[in-house]
Design a protein that fits this description.
Layout: H1 7-13, H2 39-47, H3 62-75, E1 79-83, H4 86-95, E2 103-107, H5 112-124, E3 128-132, H6 137-143, E4 148-154, H7 166-175, E5 179-183, H8 188-191, E6 201-205, E7 219-223, H9 225-239, H10 245-256, H11 258-276, E8 282-286, H12 296-303, E9 309-314, H13 317-327, E10 332-333, E11 343-345, H14 357-363, E12 369-373, H15 379-392
Parallel strand pairs: 2-3, 2-4, 4-5, 5-6, 10-11
Antiparallel strand pairs: 1-7, 6-7, 8-9, 9-12, 11-12
Helix pairs in contact: 1-3, 3-10, 4-5, 11-15, 13-15
Bound molecules: pyridoxal-5'-phosphate.
Pyridoxal-5'-phosphate (PLP) binds near residues 185 and 208.
InterPro entries: Cys/Met-Metab_PyrdxlP-dep_enz, O-succ-hSer_sulfhydrylase, PyrdxlP-dep_Trfase, PyrdxlP-dep_Trfase_major, PyrdxlP-dep_Trfase_small
Catalytic activity: O-succinyl-L-homoserine + hydrogen sulfide = L-homocysteine + succinate
EC number: 2.5.1.-
Length: about 400
């Protein structure tokens, strides 16, 4: 699609529609349905709804539509469908497409709920799933077959910030005609160039950077008009995973500042990673924006940024990590990310608690590991807070 406006203009204006009152702010159409002027119009709309004609909020709504158009324009896809959560987006993107007997190849390092969809749900309905080490293109090459319907991966993994080469995997997948579905949450919609790099479908948890203020759950699937309206929409609108108009409005408000926020967070993340690297109480710093990251060059080519999260290992294991977290004065202990408030997470006892030890070991999720989601606070204050808390570790 040719781009009408640059990013910051899109984020403020794209998709806006105004009622007869000409309101400045995006209106919340808090309505489940729409009255038709006459019975003939109702019949006509059920045969084929026009562009700005709506039937029922589970199918679509003016506020929701504005959010979908804005994020599609930003991502560079023809269309998008907004969902009740990031997981409704991931599960919808996969389940709407796949049938019994289909084959999917997926990266193994996944957000816990994504792993549940692939490992437990899809297989229950006869979909065959092969897991690979996402960073190893040879494993993708060996796993895809002419029968592979889709590949799925998180472009940057949680919590160890390992990248999957979108262009590389896309070439392998497209050679066998498989659809490339990318969960791009950690990359953020601002640093994403996934579509340009070949991805067919890009999925976001809008709960993270898009809201950016920790208020609401939401998600979105971006893709071609054919995929969104013919494959995904029928499934979503009949199974009930649509976003609420109120949430879509929250996400629209988040989008106006999305570019500014992601760039400010990424700038601070780099400063924090630099400040932690070499600290005597920190045994490892993982940040794709640092030259020490093994995929630094790929991160720069793929995202042009190291992102907004820094993962590091505190010397002394779980006890030291807990002492460190409990001593933080600015950052909160929680498990969201992309929030204006900085958040420290201890993956091994929370988000990844249920993984068997050998999988934690394989993924590098050690007892001293901290995932730090960099917020919008002053970077110098955050660094001072991290340094004083490390004294307690
Ligand atoms: C948070 C997250 C999800 C799920 O999103 P929800 O909005 O919590 O449902 C999926 N994938 C990744 C990578 C996430 O970080």
């Amino acid at each position: 699609m040719t781009k009408k406006w640059n990013t910051r203009t899109q984020l403020v204006h794209e998709g806006s529609r105004r009622s007869q009152y000409g309101e400045m702010a995006e209106a919340i159409f808090l309505t489940q349905g729409f009255a038709y002027p006459d019975a003939e119009s109702a019949e006509a709309r059920f045969i084929k709804a026009g562009d700005d004609e709506f039937i029922y909020a589970r199918y679509g709504n003016p506020t929701t539509r504005t959010f979908e158009e804005r994020i599609a324009a930003l991502e560079g896809t023809e269309d998008a469908f907004a969902t009740a959560s990031g997981m409704a987006a991931v599960s919808g993107a996969l389940t709407s497409l796949l049938r019994a007997g289909d084959h999917v190849v997926s990266a193994r390092a996944l957000f816990g709920s994504c792993l549940y969809i692939l490992e437990d749900v899809l297989t229950r309905y006869g979909v065959k799933v092969t897991f690979v080490d996402g960073a190893d293109l040879d494993q993708w090459r060996a796993a895809v077959t002419p029968g592979t319907k889709a590949v799925f991966f998180e472009s940057m993994s949680n919590p160890t910030l390992e990248l999957v080469d979108i262009r590389g995997v896309t070439e392998i997948a497209h050679a066998v005609g498989a659809l490339v579905i990318v969960d791009n949450v950690f990359a953020t919609p601002i640093f994403s160039r996934a579509v340009e790099q070949g991805a067919d479908v890009v999925v976001y948890s809008a709960t993270k950077h898009i809201d950016g203020q920790g208020r609401a759950l939401g998600g979105v699937v971006c893709g071609t008009r054919d995929y969104i309206r013919k494959v995904l929409e029928p499934y979503m609108k009949h199974t009930g995973g649509s976003i609420s108009p109120f949430t879509a409005w929250i996400m629209l408000n988040g989008m106006a500042t999305l570019d500014l926020r992601c760039r400010a967070m990424a700038d601070s993340a780099l400063k924090i990673a630099q400040a932690l690297e070499g600290h005597p109480k920190v045994t490892k710093v993982i940040f794709p924006g640092l030259p020490s990251h093994p995929q630094h060059a790929l991160a720069m080519a793929q995202m042009g940024s190291g992102g907004t999260l820094v993962t590091f290992e505190v010397a002394g294991g779980k006890e030291a990590a807990f002492r460190f977290m409990n001593a933080l004065e600015i950052a909160k202990i929680s498990n969201n990310l992309g929030d204006a408030k900085s958040i420290a997470t201890h993956p091994t006892t929370t988000t990844h608690q249920r993984l068997p030890q050998e999988q934690k070991d394989a993924l590098g999720i050690t007892p001293g590991l901290i995932r730090f989601s960099v917020g919008l606070e002053d970077a110098e204050d955050l660094i001072a807070d991290l340094h004083q808390a490390l004294e307690h570790a």
